[in-house]
Specification:
Blueprint (H helix, E strand, L loop, with lengths): L2 H14 L4 H8 L3 H8 L7 H11 L3 H6 L10 H46 L5 H22 L6 H28 L3 H32 L4
Length: 222
């Protein structure tokens, strides 16, 4: 299946039917950004959208997959099955790439967490609060990065709340650590760490906001 050919076909039939991208998107429950991406040949419709798209454009599945009007010539079952199989293969490959990228990023996070634990063990103490804060922070970053990579449209606002909530919990655990030191009257520990902690917190929140901003911008039309 040729993405450019399919995109031109979708755009041509849509205009022929007198529909805007927004109107076609509403029928398929996707964003007009998604329709634009298909028409520009920047991506293929998901398998679940193939049949609804054909119905919305009032064309046959074979015509849609071929990216051209049926001239009336007979198309064998084998040819039709091959076109459908090619479509499924393309979408499966795309989804597989997304899954691989997501797993690689998750593996990096797990390796980072293990590294932190080993460092803490090496120095003879495990600071549970610090480890918890780091893991929450990594999770807060994982969500926007994963959705920036993801090609599917999502409601970014929901994930922003989750990501920033995790970020707030990460920062909160660090200040809880300071509170514990205050209760223990460990003023030297506070003096040694407060400046560096405030700098790290500021940088962490800045990166979190930037990542979530990029995620919202990418999925802004959903």
């Amino acid at each position: 299946m040729d993405a450019q050919k399919l995109g031109l076909f979708i755009a041509s039939i849509r205009k022929e039917r007198g529909m805007t991208q927004s109107e076609l998107a509403a029928k398929l429950f996707v964003s007009d950004k998604t329709i634009s991406k298909w028409e520009r040949g920047a991506g293929f419709p998901d398998i679940k959208n193939i049949e609804p798209l054909a119905k919305a454009l009032d064309v046959s599945l074979v015509e849609l997959i071929q990216g051209e009007r049926n001239t009336g010539e007979f198309i064998s079952t084998q040819v039709a099955e091959k076109m459908i199989a090619d479509t499924i293969t393309i979408r499966t490959s795309s989804n597989h790439i997304e899954q691989v990228v997501g797993r690689i990023f998750l593996a990096i996070i797990l390796c980072a967490a293990i590294f932190v634990l080993l460092v803490l063990l090496q120095y003879g103490r495990i600071v549970l609060i610090s480890v918890t804060s780091i893991l929450l922070g990594l999770a807060a970053w994982f969500i926007p990065v994963r959705l920036i990579i993801c090609k599917r449209e999502v409601r970014a606002a929901v994930y922003v709340w989750i990501s920033m909530g995790l970020a707030a919990m990460s920062v909160g655990t660090q200040f809880f650590d300071i509170y514990c030191n205050v209760q223990a009257h460990d003023w030297s520990a506070i003096e040694d760490t407060i400046s560096a902690l405030l700098l790290v917190v500021a940088l962490f929140l800045a990166v979190s906001i930037i990542l979530n901003g990029i995620m919202v911008w990418k999925h802004r039309k959903y």
